[in-house]
Amino acid sequence: MSDSVSINDMIKVGMGDFKVGKAPAQIITLGLGSCVGITMYDRVTKVGGMLHAMLPESSRILDGSNKAKFVDTGIVELLTALETAGASLNRLEVKLAGGAAMFPNIVDTASPVLQIGANNVKATKQWLAKFGLRLTSEETGENFGRTIVLDLNTGDLEIRAIGQEVRHI
Description:
By secondary structure, the protein is an alpha+beta fold. The protein is 20% helix and 33% strand. The protein has helices at 71-84, 104-107, 116-130; strands spanning 10-13, 17-22, 26-32, 36-42, 47-53, 92-98, 135-140, 146-151, 157-160, 167-168. The strands form 2 sheets. Strands 1-3-8-9-10 form a 5-stranded mixed beta sheet, with no helix packed on it. A 5-stranded mixed beta sheet has the order 2-5-4-6-7, with helices on one face. The radius of gyration is 15 Å and the shape is globular.
């Protein structure tokens, strides 16, 4: 995270939420465990956005009113907001983080339905392909949570995790 960015330039994304911004802002989300953080960035306009999706599909849940909670509907909402903010969808750089197996000892022997992290990553890749968007970088899986920060000046995605070195993709 750049030292020159003030707290006022930090856009916070909660769970089941998405935000869009423009440089010099940065967008941050905390607590990506099995959730996925999907970032999209237009290097020309320096407009970008982040989705913190909790589940792969809205169709399996009775109350799907919070579209950002789900990969399938959240990506549509994010793309619409990015285009409205001036991003060109054919220039988007897409990065993905999260999708961890937070309870691997339980999930390894359980039903695939309980493999939420892996299912979130799979759904994200399927939806990106449907929209013709290419995933440019990812750090997914493992068994630890992540905090991610998207720098809207550069498109750099900083990934922090307890006990891990800070990474940039």
